[in-house]
């Protein structure tokens, strides 16, 4: 929630516990996180990165393995490189 003034660790913990319980939890979680990380709202993107870090530390091999796939990594590249988001600027 971009209106949060600080990280809600109770919600973050509930999120990564859900990821661990669901069969397709890592795939669904990373899809949601990739979308939020690309948010134009800085606060929302930073919160998504905090959740990603918590998941990397608490969700185990399945989550980390899914995060290491090109599908997710390409979404992160879009944040870092304007070339991949379609905003090339040749000056």
Automatic annotation (TrEMBL):
<feature type="domain" description="VHS">
    <location>
        <begin position="1"/>
        <end position="91"/>
    </location>
</feature>
<dbReference type="InterPro" id="IPR008942">
    <property type="entry name" value="ENTH_VHS"/>
</dbReference>
<dbReference type="GO" id="GO:0006886">
    <property type="term" value="P:intracellular protein transport"/>
</dbReference>
<dbReference type="InterPro" id="IPR027422">
    <property type="entry name" value="GGA1-3"/>
</dbReference>
<dbReference type="Pfam" id="PF00790">
    <property type="entry name" value="VHS"/>
</dbReference>
<dbReference type="GO" id="GO:0031267">
    <property type="term" value="F:small GTPase binding"/>
</dbReference>
<dbReference type="GO" id="GO:0035091">
    <property type="term" value="F:phosphatidylinositol binding"/>
</dbReference>
<dbReference type="GO" id="GO:0034394">
    <property type="term" value="P:protein localization to cell surface"/>
</dbReference>
<dbReference type="GO" id="GO:0005802">
    <property type="term" value="C:trans-Golgi network"/>
</dbReference>
<protein>
    <recommendedName>
        <fullName>VHS domain-containing protein</fullName>
    </recommendedName>
</protein>
<dbReference type="GO" id="GO:0006893">
    <property type="term" value="P:Golgi to plasma membrane transport"/>
</dbReference>
<dbReference type="GO" id="GO:0043130">
    <property type="term" value="F:ubiquitin binding"/>
</dbReference>
<dbReference type="InterPro" id="IPR002014">
    <property type="entry name" value="VHS_dom"/>
</dbReference>
């Amino acid at each position: 929630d971009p209106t949060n003034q600080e990280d809600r660790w109770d919600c973050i913990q509930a999120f990564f516990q859900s990821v661990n319980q669901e069969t397709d939890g890592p795939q669904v979680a990373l899809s949601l996180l990739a979308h939020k990380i690309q948010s134009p709202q800085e606060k929302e993107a930073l919160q998504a990165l905090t959740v990603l870090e918590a998941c990397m530390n608490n969700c185990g091999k399945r989550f980390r393995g899914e995060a290491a796939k090109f599908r997710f990594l390409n979404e992160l590249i879009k944040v870092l490189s304007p070339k991949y988001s379609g905003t090339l600027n040749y000056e």
